[in-house]
Amino acid sequence: MTLLRLRGIGKEFGAIRALAEIDLTVAAGEVVGLMGDNGAGKSTLVKIIAGNFPPSHGTMIFDDQPVHFSRPIDARSVGIEVVYQDLALADNLTAAANVFLGRELKRRLGPVTVLDHAAMNRRAAALFQELKSETRADDLVRQMSGGQRQAVAIARTRLKEAKLVLMDEPTAAISVRQVAEVLDLIRRLRDAGIAVILISHRMPDVFTVCDRVVVLRRGSKVADKPIQSSSPEEVTALITGAKEAA
């Protein structure tokens, strides 16, 4: 089932054209790799999907409904979550506190309302178990590996039953073992029927975990094809312009 459909999406910032007539579909449970050089338009496209700013023109259909996002909370309300490269985690808090940051569970204690730390810890532990992560709910984020931090950020997307997760360079600057952990987390999302758009410069990651690869160059889509029908060499040629389109 097609979950996300973009038709003719374009974005201009004054005289600068960031995106030109982008058509894109993403199915439920599909992992799509989004690749391109710096300035190709990847971040602009993801920010439009995530509700950071509206497109200049074009239409977006999500879960069979036309959508118009004015802010990120609008995108989150329909099931679109983002895991940014910096993860936006609070190092001084526990894993559970980060998972529920801004969405804390509360309970009544007489005349006052207090945070329900026990309930948040239980729910966070269940999410980490679903993701088959070794992260523990009461671990402090500042003591975690890169892979564990990604697990916290991904668990946060599961709170509201996300349908589409946008991941921005999740394996940048982490070890080989941690890369494997993150790719496993992406597979868990896919197996749960959640669609993933993976923005990455790492060719091995895209060809390991993605079903399809989409290549942008100078704001235009120059390729959109199944992983099995492409190769790292072809994608590199498309990114650099050695090959015009595929």
From TrEMBL:
Record domain ABC transporter: where:
4-243
Q: Does the keyword ATP-binding apply?
A: yes
Q: Tell me the PROSITE patterns matching this sequence.
A: ABC_TRANSPORTER_2
> Where do the coiled-coil regions begin and end?
none
Q: Name any one GO molecular function.
A: ATP hydrolysis activity
One Pfam family this chain carries? ABC_tran
Keywords attached to this Swiss-Prot or TrEMBL record, sorted alphabetically, are: ATP-binding, Nucleotide-binding
Q: Which domain of life is it from?
A: Bacteria
- Protein name from the UniProt record: Monosaccharide ABC transporter ATP-binding protein (CUT2 family)
What species does this protein belong to?
Chelatococcus asaccharovorans
